[in-house]
Amino acid sequence: MTELLPNYVNGRWQTGSGEGAALIDPVLATELVRVDATGLDLPAAFAYAREQGGGALRALSYAQRAVMLAAAVKVLQGQRDAYYEIATANSGTVKNDSAVDIDGAIFTLSTYAKLGEGLGDRHFMLDGEMARLGKDPLFQSQHVLTPTRGVALFINAFNFPAWGLWEKAAPALLSGVPVIIKPATATAWLTQRMVEDVVKAGIFPPGALSIVCGSSAGLMDQLQPFDVVSFTGSAETAAVIRSHPAVVRHSVRVNIEADSVNSALLLPGEAAGSESFDLLVKEVAREMTVKSGQKCTAIRRVFVQETMYDAVAAAISARLAKTTVGNPRNESVRMGALVNRAQLVSVREGLHTLQQHADTLYDGSKQEWVDADPALACCLGPVLLGSRHADDAAVVHDIEVFGPVATLLPYRDSAHALELVRRGQGSLVASIYGRDVSAMAKTALALADSHGRVHSVSPDVAALHTGHGNVMPQSLHGGPGRAGGGEELGGLRALNFYHRRSAIQASTAVLTQLG
Ligand code: NAP
Question: Which pTM does this prediction carry?
Answer without folding.
Answer: 0.97
